[in-house]
């Protein structure tokens, strides 16, 4: 299967959101974010959309057989960016919780 890792970046600050998706197009995934934003749902990307000056792009395409492989690549990006002083990562949670029962039983 094909998926991708993407970023949504606030062009007025150093805020960045990183996510992964199995969707065919980035625009479809961003539409999901924007729908939740407009419906006032609690999403972390809100911190970027509030600035009204953002861009989204794919930062890596990923071939995977199990969803956990895609999530692990996303987590790798999150881990790398959280220590980079050039970015303020707005993701609220990890992509992968290694003590998850689904991961421990290899169900993802």
Task: Tell me what you see in this structure.
- With about 110 residues, this protein is of the alpha+beta class.
- It is built from four helices and four strands, in the order ββααβαβα.
Give the overall form: globular
Count of strand segments: 4
* End-to-end C-alpha gap: 14 Å
Rg, please? 14 Å
The topology string of helices and strands comes to EEHHEHEH
Kindly estimate the percentage of residues that lie in beta strands according to DSSP. Answer: 25-35%
In the predicted model, the low-confidence regions spanning at least 5 consecutive residues are none
Specify the number of helices. Answer: 4
**Main beta sheet, described?**
4 strands, mixed
Question: Largest beta sheet: what is the strand line-up?
Answer: 3-1-2-4
Helix-strand makeup class: alpha+beta
Keywords:
four-stranded mixed β-sheet, alpha+beta, 4 strands, 108 residues
Structure summary:
By secondary structure, the protein is α+β, with helices and mostly antiparallel strands. The protein has helices spanning 26-38, 46-49, 67-82, 101-104, and strands spanning 2-10, 15-21, 54-63, 88-89. It is globular, with a radius of gyration of 14 Å.
């Amino acid at each position: 299967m094909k998926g991708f890792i993407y970023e949504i970046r606030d062009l007025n600050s150093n805020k960045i959101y990183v996510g992964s998706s199995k969707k065919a197009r980035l625009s479809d995934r961003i539409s999901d974010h924007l729908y939740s934003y407009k419906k006032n749902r609690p999403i972390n990307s809100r911190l970027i959309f509030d600035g009204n000056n953002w861009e989204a792009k794919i930062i890596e395409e990923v071939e995977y057989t199990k969803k956990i492989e895609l999530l692990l690549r996303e987590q790798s990006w999150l881990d790398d960016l959280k220590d980079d002083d050039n970015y303020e990562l707005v993701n609220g949670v990890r992509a992968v919780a290694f003590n998850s029962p689904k991961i421990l039983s290899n169900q993802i």
